[in-house]
What we know:
This protein is α/β, with parallel strands linked by helices. The chain has helices spanning 2-26, 40-57, 77-87, 117-122, 125-140, 144-163, 171-211, and strands spanning 31-33, 60-66, 98-104, 109-115, 242-246, 249-255.
Amino acid sequence: MKRKLTVFVLLALLLTLLVLPAQAEEGLYYVTDEADILTDEEDMELETLLQGISEEHNIGVYLVAVDDYTDYGDGSVYEVTYGLYHEYTMGKGEERNGIMLLLSMEQRDFATFVYGADAEYAFSDYALQQLEEEFLPYFADNDWYEGFRAYATTCDEYLTKAEEGKPVEEGDGMIYLIVIGASFLIALIVVSILKAGMKNVRAGQEAKAYITRELNLTQRSDQFTHTTRTERKIEKSDSDSKAHSGGGGHGRSGKF
């Protein structure tokens, strides 16, 4: 009996040793918060979100926040970003497709790095500029969690469009403006027609009132003076970001 118990304990220890490395490898792989700007709950929620997006599209989507990027390598924040990407073998599949966003809190610098043919198809330089507009306003307001969520969900959207053969391209903005302009023009025409109809009705009513001597010449008006409105505005960050190539891929960097 004692011999059987000893064997059981040894097997249990062996299983523990086999499981622990797997857990360590998975860990918080998609979110690395060395700057400690997220709560544990936020960290885990983002980890789950990014893992789901990465597995669905087979393209890794990563977040890294550090205190000072210069502690992790030489060169610019972009060079350090792609250095970390390769050092930790990030990416999905044989080509290691992925996108990484790094924040360096001390300098308020950020960089994105895109690697792999499929990832680069989804995230052109124009797409990265549009992506910045989604998360930078939150970072300017020090709202890290919502900024990271905006990054994650927008990456998911762009990857879906790329899979449908419709990656985010520069022409998309022009089409959007045309649609808005056409809608505004149609609305203006409708309002003009309705306004003209109201004028005719009013003229008829006033003529009738004049004939029946019921027209009241005393003008009455309720003058609107002002209203009080309170709202929270997230200012758009003037990051002055710029494009980069290197490390086998491309990306952008700037301030937040």
